[in-house]
Amino acid sequence: MKYLSGKHISRRAMLKGAGAAISLPLLDAMVPAGRLWASTSAGRAADRTRLVCIEQVHGAAGCNDWGASQNLWSPAETGRNFDLSPSSLKPLEPFRKYLTIVSDTDARMADAYAPAEIGGDHFRTSAVFLTQAHPKQTEGSDVRVGTSFDQLYVQRFGQDTPIPSMQLSIENVDQAGGCAYGYACVYTDTISWASPTDPLPMIRDPRAVFEQLFGAGGTAEQRAERLTTNRSILDWVMGEMTSMRRQLDPADVHRLDQYAQNIRELEQRIQRIEAQNVSGEERQIPEAPVGVPDSFEEHVKLMFDLQVLAFQSDTTRVFSLKLGRDASPRVYTESGVETPFHAASHHGGRPERVKQFGRINEYHISMLPYFLAKLQQATEGDGTLLDKTMVLYGSAMGDSNLHNHIRCPLFLVGGAGGILEGEQHIRAQPGTPMANVMLSLLHKLGADDLEKFGNSTGHYEI
């Protein structure tokens, strides 16, 4: 279908108003007459794989010797006919055709390489997850580790979107200076590094993410005025939206209206959380910003919904998400475990305690199907966003009780633009660096000239 004026509109068209600027989803009117979307330069760029990297801190119960024997993370079977029911990955069963599990890779760059580094695993592991490089031990500003997997992708393929990438977190990651064992807090506060010396800050507040995506228009005064009213951000662009709707065919009007409805619903959820958090009622996490819900599940779902909207509008194609914080005392009551997270991770190898930690792992994994379903419901061109997205989920720690970095948890889920077969479990040979997997993924994503990543020793077939 064409724009009713007979012209096509730019994929970068925006609805603008005082203090607001809203990018649009893909519309038929953005396709030049007589051409397929995939054949246009904008279409080829937008069909780049969306990338989401999620860190689960403290490894997994199935990386403990007993947990591995019970298949609490890795299924017993390799290949396609694997059974997820004993494992923390059980919630992913509805999406198994999109799932690739890579078991038993190591992240040895998080090991202590000198006596002074012993004990500092908590303050190295997050920095190693996506860099697979060994952090320099320092409490000063002279930090150094490596350029992260997500940012190598951004440098090659994320420079033509309004926001090259976004970094999100669920727990507090805004400490400054030194943390412990001679390490700067930034090593444990972020998983994304634009260069070996340039850590990228992570955003915890959904309101701040929303404003980056939709509140960039107008002057600072106009944006401040909008935030002090109870009006929706859509109210500030209604004039342009009404004008555009008159020129679109019915199918595009429906797409635009559905997209606007999703924005409004998400904005209202954020507003309700903010109102609750300033009501004077006691909060479970009083140090959190006003836009952060006390509920872990609600917080994670908000962050996932923001990512779906960003992908729909092609505002960015790359996210990293840090689900937790090292040594977190948070209690995940919904998992059925009342033991605080960090205490649960130090299970002493006792089977009942290991299973408790496994239930927390499963609870974290259970957040993902919500995101995957939203991506699957969002159509774009001849596919869905799930077909075009690769979610990399894992940790650079293995057995949380021992703080080791072998047999680490790692899986991929999503269609990834067709570069992954899906529905497979691969078990690596002992000693295989996780970096080998990431190097191979970068090659599949199009960065096939890279010869090395982190401590990679070669290509790993996925």
How would you describe what is shown here?
The chain has 462 residues and is α/β, with parallel strands linked by helices. It has 14 helices and 15 strands. The strands form five sheets. The protein has a seven-stranded mixed sheet, with helices on both faces. The protein has a two-stranded antiparallel ribbon with strand order 1-2. Strands 6-7 form a two-stranded antiparallel sheet. The N terminus is likely disordered.
Order of helices and strands: EEHEHEHHEEEHEEHHHHHEHHHEEEEEH
The 3D shape can be described as globular
Low-confidence stretches: 1-6
Mean of residue pLDDT values: 91
Based on the model shown, name its key terms.
disordered N terminus, 462 residues, 31% helix, two-stranded antiparallel sheet, 14 helices, 7-stranded mixed sheet, 15 strands, alpha/beta, globular
Describe this structure in a few short sentences.
With 462 residues, the chain is of the alpha/beta class. It has helices at residues 41-46, 65-69, 125-129, 149-157, 186-189, 206-214, 220-227, 238-246, 250-277, 296-312, 341-345, 351-365, 368-377, 434-445; strands at 14-17, 20-23, 50-55, 99-103, 166-169, 178-180, 183-184, 193-195, 198-199, 318-322, 379-380, 383-384, 389-394, 410-413, 424-427. The protein has 14 helices and 15 strands.
